[in-house]
Amino acid sequence: MRTRFVGGFYGQLVSGLLWLASAALAEWSSPRAGITTLVLGGVAIFPLTELLLRLEGPRTALSPENTLHGLGREVALVLPLSMPLLLPVTLYRATWFYPAMMILLGAHYLPFTFLYGMRMFTALSALLVGSGVLIAMYVPYKFTLGGWFTAAALLLFAVIGRIHADREHRS
Predict the structure, then answer these.
(1) Closest to 144 in 3D by CA, of 135, 134, 154
(2) Where are the alpha helices (DSSP H) in 57-85?
(3) What is the mean pLDDT of each run of 10 residues along the chain (171 residues)?
(4) CA 117, 148, 54: angle at the middle one, nearest 5?
(5) Structurally, how many domains does the chain consist of?
(6) Is residue 8 exposed (0-12), middle (13-18) or buried (19+ Cβ within 10 Å)?
(7) Could you list the residue range(s) of the whole structural domain that residue 84 is in?
(8) Phi/psi at 61 (nearest 5 deg)?
(9) 25 closest CA partner among 14, 17, 33
(10) What's the whole-model pTM score?
(11) How far is residue 30's CA from residue 34's CA, in Å, rounded to a whole number?
(12) HSE of 136 in the Cβ direction (CA atoms, 13 Å)?
């Protein structure tokens, strides 16, 4: 899984760029534009990830016997299935949208530790959940802070995952 998906690089790259676009739209257009971009754009993460993987060229294919592929599909559904929680949270306090989404995303990333066999996903999960809670509690008046922070974290961890997967692939 780690080799096939380049340590999560493309998925996190696409996600990080989506969070970046969402935060920018929320900051310079409207919060609704940022929210809509993140929620609807999330549907395109996996197809864009697959497209980028194919454009990069062949890597190790997953064996049909690899049961982790099924786990990957299930893990991918955790986030969209938990996103209905965002509606009451955001209706109660709109500035909690990004922190709440950070917590959901962090929970979504935790199983990637096992899926890819990479502890960095435990760190990413803890960073997103902890930061989401702290932003909601102590900086709730800054609507886009969570969006900017998550974009930066995802892009940074994408690079870390890429470096790790490339080193392993070469050896």
Answers:
(1) 135
(2) 68-82
(3) 72 96 98 97 91 79 70 83 94 97 96 87 97 97 97 96 81 73
(4) 45
(5) 1
(6) buried
(7) 6-60+67-170
(8) -80, 155
(9) 33
(10) 0.91
(11) 7
(12) 19
